[in-house]
Write a sequence for this structure.
């Protein structure tokens, strides 16, 4: 990853390496000296096309990116659970949910415990360059970075699929966020230099090489915080499930044109999930064919569907998308993640990245919140000591 204002290719250092991360020293700073720390690092993700369809079995084209969060953990001296990071410091006697920075990590500890990996009371510190509430899966990243750190601390190993299940158990069942499996699957299974095609109905995935060395992705935060745990995300999911139930299908990929049969109240949501899953499959074909204009068009159409039918965009996100598209060399742009704020991602010729970032900043006013991102490796690769294999339990 490099600043989008700097269009030189990012360096070759592994951005998810734990070696130089300050999370472990942060533990000492936050809580005083203590036992040796174990760390885990997890990347964020960018969806190319396929938003708000994972929870109804849709197709998603996505990738992990070279922005990451690291969690350092060590056993607590006094049996209290503590977390420091992202401007918050919390502590409690039990790893329970309280609506703060502790939730995802305490949920991760509970989820591990439920699947037979008991975790002692911990002190934890979070650091990294993946922005929170920016539509880049920071919640799943902090959860999974925490799980990896806890596995390293306890000397246990899990399969990649078990890791995805634990992240979902933590986020959805324990923290109560009604998310789908897009984020953990991207974070676990991604490979550097490749996009992922996820089928959220069958759980299968396909890897697709990023075919354009000279085409980049620029991400820019809008400054509007999104909240995937919020009421509106939950409502989108409920409406999508209602639309599928009304049509008697179990996944949005089975809807085709039948969204027209839905009652007017559900029709826009039904049209979004029916068309977005098809667009995601088409995006994979565009990647395979090296059709950059085609992928850009599909990203534009995805944004329009999210704006008009799913109604998760905001005037600022729309204005940022418009501004990016006006830059020569930009092939397409869309909001990324759940929406209601968050970020915009634009597909641009590398030589146009600086101008595109400037156009986005002119709308957002945030000149330190643009990134030139690359497809990065997920945990199967970067945490292969603790993650991998079909039956990874030890
Ligand atoms: C959030 C959720 C995902 C997915 C996206 C929207 O990132 O965690 O499961 O629903 O929103 O595509």
């Amino acid at each position: 990853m490099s600043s989008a204002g700097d269009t030189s290719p990012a360096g070759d250092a592994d951005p998810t390496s734990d070696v130089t991360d300050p999370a472990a020293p942060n533990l000492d700073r936050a809580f005083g000296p203590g036992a040796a720390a174990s760390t885990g690092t997890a990347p964020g993700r960018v969806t190319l096309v396929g938003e708000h369809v994972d929870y109804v079995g849709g197709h998603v084209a996505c990738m992990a990116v070279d922005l990451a969060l690291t969690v350092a953990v060590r056993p607590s001296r006094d049996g209290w659970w503590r977390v420091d990071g992202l401007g918050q410091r919390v502590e409690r006697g039990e790893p329970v949910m309280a609506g703060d920075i502790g939730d995802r990590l305490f949920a991760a500890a509970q989820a591990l415990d439920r699947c037979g990996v008991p975790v002692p009371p911990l002190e934890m510190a979070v650091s990294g360059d993946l922005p929170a509430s920016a539509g880049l899966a920071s919640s799943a990243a902090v959860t999974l970075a925490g799980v990896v750190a806890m596995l390293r601390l306890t000397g246990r190993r899990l399969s990649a699929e078990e890791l995805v299940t634990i992240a979902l158990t933590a986020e959805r069942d324990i923290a109560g966020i009604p998310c789908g499996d897009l984020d953990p699957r991207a974070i676990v299974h991604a490979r550097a230099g490749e996009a992922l095609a996820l089928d959220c109905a069958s759980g299968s995935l396909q890897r697709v090489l990023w075919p354009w060395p000279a085409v980049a992705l620029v991400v820019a935060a809008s400054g509007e915080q999104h909240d995937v745990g919020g009421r509106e995300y939950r409502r989108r999911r409920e409406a999508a499930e209602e639309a599928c139930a009304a049509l008697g299908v179990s996944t949005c990929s089975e809807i085709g044109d039948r969204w027209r049969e839905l009652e007017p109240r559900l029709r826009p949501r039904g049209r979004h999930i029916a068309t977005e899953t098809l667009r995601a499959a088409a995006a994979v074909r565009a990647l395979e064919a090296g059709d950059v204009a085609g992928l850009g068009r599909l990203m534009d159409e995805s944004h329009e569907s999210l704006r008009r039918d799913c109604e998760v965009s905001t005037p600022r996100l729309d204005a940022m998308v418009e501004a990016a598209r006006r830059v020569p060399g930009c092939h397409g742009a869309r909001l990324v993640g759940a929406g209601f704020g968050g970020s915009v991602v634009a597909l641009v010729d590398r030589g146009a990245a600086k101008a595109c970032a400037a156009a986005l900043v002119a709308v957002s006013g945030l000149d330190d919140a643009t990134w030139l991102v690359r497809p990065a490796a997920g945990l199967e690769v970067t945490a292969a000591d603790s993650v991998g294999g079909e039956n990874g339990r030890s």
Q: What stands out?
A: Residues 47, 51-52, 54-55, 137, 179-180, 182-183, 228, 337-338 surround alpha-D-galactopyranose (CB under 6 Å). The longest helix spans residues 267-289. The CA atoms of residues 135 and 338 lie 6 Å apart.
